[in-house]
Fold this protein.
Amino acid sequence: MKALVTGGTGFVGRQLLPLLDRPIVLSRNLERAQRSVGRYAGRVLAWDPLDGPPPPDAFDGVDVVFHLAGESVAEGRWTAAQKAKIRDSRVRGTKNLVAGIARAEPRPRVLASASAVGFYGDRGEEELTESARPASDFLADVCVEWEQEALAAEPLGVRVVLLRTGIVLGHGGALAKMLTPFKLGAGGPLGNGRQWMPWIHVADMARLYLHAAATEAIRGPMNAVAPNPVRNSEFTKALGRALHRPAFMPAPYIGLRLVFGEFAKVLFASQRVIPTVALDTGFSFEFPEIAGALQEILAPAAA
């Protein structure tokens, strides 16, 4: 399987690249990509997703495109400018990528494109499979447009899989930002802790991309989350146990709203997301339970 990867220097991309056979990597920062992931790549090519399609030779011999590139939703407050960056990096970037696929000859067989559980919004106790409707907030609207641009590759004869990703846990990423208050003994749930958290270990996340590419039966959305979502209170207790630290100091919504602005709504959203497509097509999670996932990730930190 000859692969092309966007976002290869990101948190998930760095886990995915070693599983591939000398993939082509597209990056806005050519020198940084060559330093950080060049040893895994067959070629590293410069591409700014907002400037237009990738260079034509990026698709030479490519069977599968793994599209992971996109501005982080958790960096800084959601000002109008930051919202535009989030939307453009996903919507315009994907549109330009598919324009490149349209020009390729022959075309790749599969596009496995990142999406997010933000598609579902705040849904309380509802179990959310891939058939659930989208919400109507900012992040959900971005996800809908993002997915529509990826699905534009289908009329070109490309099988498209949309990986709606939850909180990805591993060394670094979102978990790294959570550790400091817990290590100081000041960790705790968000609000009452009743909200559901869809999560996945980064190793399973990378393997899900391979599963999506290899499984012909998978088309359209696939929830990229572990099969056992947990409430926020359960997550914080498991994190505290893994670090041998207390986890009882709740973070109030009003305080986080002052720090994060509109993004605080995302932190408090309840999303009971179930990976029905992955399970029905035979994917086996290495880390299906939160305690085991955190123990594997944090064992050195807790020692």
